[in-house]
Amino acid sequence: MSRAHLREKFRLGTRASLLALSQANWVKSRLEEQNPEAEVTLVRIKTEGDKIDIPLFRVGGKGLFVKEIENALLRGEVDLAVHSAKDLPVLIPEGLMLMAFPKREDPRDVLISKDGRKWGELPHNGRVGTGSLRRRAQLLHLRPDLEIVALRGNLDTRVKKLSSLNLDAIVLASAGLHRLGWEDQISEFLEPEVMLPAIGQGVLAIEGRQGDERVSLLVGSLNHYPTQASINAERAFLKRLEGGCQVPMAGLARVESEKLNLIGLVAGLDGQRLIRGRVEGSSEKSEDLGKQLAEELLERGAADILREAYKKG
User: Fold this and answer.
1) Domain count, the chain
2) CATH code of the domain covering residue 262
3) Are residues 70 and 151 in the same domain?
4) Is position 57 within any domain?
5) What is the DSSP string of 21-61?
6) Distance between CA atoms of residues 159 and 112, nearest Å
7) Is 109 a residue of the active site?
8) Global pTM?
9) Per-residue confidence of the chain (313 residues) as pLDDT tens digits?
10) Would 195 be classed as within a structural domain?
């Protein structure tokens, strides 16, 4: 099939949040630029994660933001979908596949604080907002004095809670703020040595039905190999750890000159125990490197942390 056959309409499934629509519109624009004869229409789908107002780790985690969209794909109601890769469970439903990963945005977390204070300037016993166990554990590991305040809601809602909850700071993903043009609100970028990002943070994943050649051809030009190798390593790491939202886990892979470097961590819920490791190797062996790092952390004590966390859950 050639691009000449793409003179047709495609329905792109997306969540209806401000950030999700921004991401979906970006994908739509790129696809129509590269395939001038194609017309991409957004189909807004409300997911279970959009309907609840309690921490995700209490209700099943990642799949809550994608299940309804994937069901729409399987029923043929949409032709492709765009997700934040960090929302994806490690297992993709039978009949679907991840077809493309555009070039990754900045994967770092950022601090948005009262009066623009930096991380090192936050007051003793300061109040920091986050809905992420991963962020909570890393914050407490470095600053046990902090009071961590649970945040829920879409990105715009969480930004407003800095003032409405009288917080000293909140921690968010840089990528979402960049996509919405809100970089001016960032007080400080948190380097991975301070705050290791979530698996897949900053990555968009385009999903379609297995065997759908017209969609595969449509989205293929958006795929960025270094991003694909990185996300494959990170997701393999998460899969070997049988990770979900109930245990603080983090990972970040980078590809340079065909070499892949992967950092990962597993932490206790209170941040007191935190096990971090690193592997490096050929980007062509990305999934093997992810599994290798997971095995190393399990042997160094991550298995005990996981058992304890799931026992409490």
Assistant:
1) 3
2) 3.30.160.40
3) no
4) yes
5) HHHHHHHHHHHHHH-TT-EEEEEE---HHHH--S-GGGTTG
6) 8
7) no
8) 0.91
9) 444 455 689 999 999 999 999 999 999 999 999 999 899 999 999 876 655 555 554 445 556 679 999 999 999 999 999 999 998 999 999 999 999 999 999 999 999 999 899 999 999 999 999 999 999 999 999 999 999 999 988 888 899 999 999 999 999 999 999 999 999 999 999 999 999 999 999 999 999 999 999 999 999 999 999 999 999 999 999 999 986 667 899 999 999 988 999 999 999 999 999 999 999 999 999 999 999 999 999 999 999 999 887 776 5
10) no
Q: Is residue 229 part of a domain?
A: no
50, 53, 79, 87: which one is catalytic?
Answer: 87
- Beta strands 169-173; 127-129: pairing state: parallel
CATH number at residue 178: 3.40.190.10
In the chain, alpha helices (H): 18-34, 48-51, 67-74, 133-142, 155-164, 174-179, 213-220, 225-240, 286-297, 303-312
Which backbone phi and psi does 113 adopt, to 5 degrees? -130, 160
| Residues 6 or more apart in contact with residue 75 via CB below 8 angstroms | none
Element (H, E) at 255: strand 249-256
Contact 104, 202 (CB under 8 A): yes
Q: Which of these, 1, 78, 70, lies nearest to 35 by C-alpha position? A: 1
94 and 207 part of one domain: yes
In angstroms, the CA 172 to CA 137 distance is: 15
Strand partners, 208: 80, 97
- For the chain, the distance separating the N- and C-terminal CA atoms, rounded to the nearest angstrom, is 50
| Structural domain containing residue 62 | 3-102+203-223
Q: Helix 286-297 crosses helix 225-240 at what angle (to 10 degrees)? A: 30
Residue 269 and residue 135 share a domain: no
Whether 307 and 282 map to the same domain: the answer is yes
Q: Does 238 lie in the same domain as 211?
A: no
